[in-house]
Amino acid sequence: MSGALGGLMIVVERSLAVTAAPPLALGYLADFGNTAVWDPVVRQSIRNGAGPIVPGVSWRQVCRLLGITTELTYTLVTSEPGRLLFHGRNEGATCVDTVVVRAAPSGCEVTYRVELEVHGLAKLASRLIKMEFEKVGNRGAAALTQALNSLAPAAP
Predict the structure, then answer these.
(1) Is 21:107 a contact under the CB 8 Å cutoff?
(2) What span, in angstroms and rounded, lies between the C-alpha atoms of 26 and 23?
(3) Which of 123, 97, 127, 95 is nearest to 110 (CA)?
(4) Which of 4, 39, 75, 130 is most exposed, with the fewest beta carbons within 10 Å of its own?
(5) DSSP annotation string for 113-137
(6) Is residue 154 part of a domain?
(7) Is residue 4 over pLDDT 60?
């Protein structure tokens, strides 16, 4: 499947049931610097600038996948109740991360969706990248569940 920019689109989505209250989970996920804690691909995620986390804030993220280290700039595009949207970009890829947080009886449900569009020579490895992204998605979902559960339980 091709995206609007002519690259190959890789989509990985996971839904997690966690014990954190929705506002805590959303606040944690809004700080993209936290991806370095739970995403197995992310080596470093450093915020550019200071102040409140609002649309327009960006992070410089260093990732390693399939033995290749790359750097992306991620920007928070949308922050609304229950939903976050981040755009990441470098010369070889465009990434859209969508986070949806819904209240649940025992805390909340978090749906994390990554849409990765590879460009240029990276398209040659797209099948391999897709397989690796699926594996990493499983490990990341487990680590994110643990990170969110450690924040605080939902109110009884």
Answers:
(1) yes
(2) 5
(3) 97
(4) 4
(5) EEEEEE-GGGGGGHHHHHHHHHHHH
(6) no
(7) no
Query: What average pLDDT is seen over the chain?
Result: 88
Output phi, psi for 117, to 5 deg. Answer: -115, 120
Q: Compute the distance between CA of residue 78 and CA of residue 87 in angstroms, rounded to an integer.
A: 10
Whether the pTM exceeds 0.90: the reply is no
Question: Residue 81 domain-assigned?
Answer: yes
Q: Is residue 139 part of a domain?
A: yes
Strand partners, 122: none
Please report whether residue 1 resides in a domain.
Answer: no
Burial class (CB in 10 A: 0-12, 13-18, 19+), 105: exposed
Tokens of 11: 């989509």
* pLDDT at 68 (0 to 100): 80
Tally helices (H) and strands (E) across the chain. Answer: 3, 7
User: Tokens for 148?
Assistant: 């969110």
Could you give the 3-state DSSP secondary structure of residue 96? Answer: strand
Q: Is the pLDDT of residue 17 over 50?
A: yes
Q: Quick one: tokens of 64?
A: 């390693």
Query: Which range marks the domain in which residue 64 is found?
Result: 8-149
